[in-house]
């Protein structure tokens, strides 16, 4: 019993001394966490410079109030280089509402595929849609049905009516003498459009066929 009491007293003394020692040790201040670094901004990929900007437009169709043309044709290009630019053609009514649009690659289009600078492209676009100082093209100038592509008496530069168009419809187009616009949509032909002005209805542009180039 005496030995057990002595061991217990010694243990308490050691525990007390350890407690006092640790209590006297200076407390190390907690190292504050370093502030989170702001997120690194991801560098945006540089945009491809649009180096072939060219725009032309001309009046088209009947003359409206105050001697202003009712419709306008506009063509413009976009792209890093003119050799691989995209051209867009659009027709707008006098109120600015678009009634027709078409787009294609300049490298595959007659009159545009040779332009290498914006200045050259501007000149080429004027030729592509037709100068504004020329008399308006009319469907009455189309060759008779018998001289269209596939007919026995086809003309030297035959016109290829749109698929599904019969003789009666074609001859009616010629008889109406509608305003017509033709522009190259390839290397061997140009696409022709006719303007239908509905009585009280919105105007409509119809693709009526291809005018083939010689050769």
Question: Describe it for me?
Answer:
With 215 residues, the protein is an alpha+beta fold. The protein folds into two domains: 47-133; 135-215. It has helices at residues 2-24, 118-129, 167-176; strands at 54-63, 69-78, 86-93, 98-105, 137-138, 159-161, 179-184, 189-196, 204-212. It has a five-stranded antiparallel sheet, with helices on one face. The chain has a four-stranded antiparallel sheet with strand order 1-2-3-4. β1 (54-63) and β2 (69-78) form a beta hairpin. The longest helix is centred in the first third of the chain and has 23 residues, at 2-24. Mean pLDDT is 80; it is low at 1-48.
Query: How confident is the prediction overall: mean pLDDT?
Result: 80
How do the strands of the widest beta sheet line up side by side?
A: 5-7-8-9-6
Oligomer: single chain
Number of domain units: 2
Shape verdict = globular
Total number of helical segments?
A: 3
Number of DSSP-assigned strands: 9
Which structural class do the helices and strands define?
Answer: alpha+beta
Largest sheet: 5 strands, antiparallel
SSE pattern: HEEEEHEEHEEE
Radius of gyration: 40 Å
Distance between the termini: 129 Å
Portion of residues within helices: 10-25%
Q: What percent of residues are in strands?
A: 25-35%
Runs in which pLDDT lies below 50 for 5 or more consecutive residues are 1-48
